[in-house]
Specification:
This protein is of the alpha+beta class. The chain has four helices and seven strands, in the order E-H-H-E-E-E-E-E-E-H-H.
């Protein structure tokens, strides 16, 4: 049985750059290795970011390296980019909102609307220290990711 009682993970930051500039960064998921402490490479099959585009991600934690496959499920210019990971069923997204001062509020989320797959739950337990500690690691990684996006956008 998949793990179905999964609270969303979320982190938010405010960036002193307009949504168009932030969008130019986050809408190209090939930038993720610059920001994410876990992602070391993202390939977009066919090279074009669009709804339906297939992704191959290479992730790393210490000596452990593993691939995941994703698919872009939402790409709303200057508002939202989201992708679903095939192996664990989670949906990762960046939502952008303009702020009153001309900047951008960026929220990164990980949701599991269909739960988390048995395969992922088992591997997380056996290899990544269990669901609770891995979830905490993901939450911390989201904060790092947003801080790095902020630094890039405000340069």
């Amino acid at each position: 049985m998949p793990l179905t009682d999964v609270a969303p993970l979320e982190a938010t930051t405010e960036i002193a750059a307009p949504p168009a500039k932030v969008w130019a960064l986050v809408s190209d998921l090939r930038n993720m290795p610059r920001w994410s402490p876990q992602n070391v490479k993202t390939f977009v099959r066919g090279g074009e970011m669009k709804v339906g585009a297939k992704l191959v991600n290479v992730n790393r934690r210490g000596l452990l390296v593993w691939p995941t496959q994703g698919q872009v499920v939402d790409l709303t210019p200057e508002k939202r980019v989201a992708f679903r990971i095939r192996e664990n069923w989670t949906v990762w997204s960046f939502d952008l909102e303009p702020t009153a001062d001309g900047g951008t509020r960026v929220t990164q989320r990980r949701e599991a609307p269909k739960g988390i797959s048995d395969l992922s739950v088992t591997l997380t337990k056996r290899v990544l220290g269990g669901q609770e500690s891995f979830t905490a690691e993901l939450q911390q990684g989201m904060q790092q990711t947003l801080a790095r996006i902020k630094a890039d956008a405000e340069r």
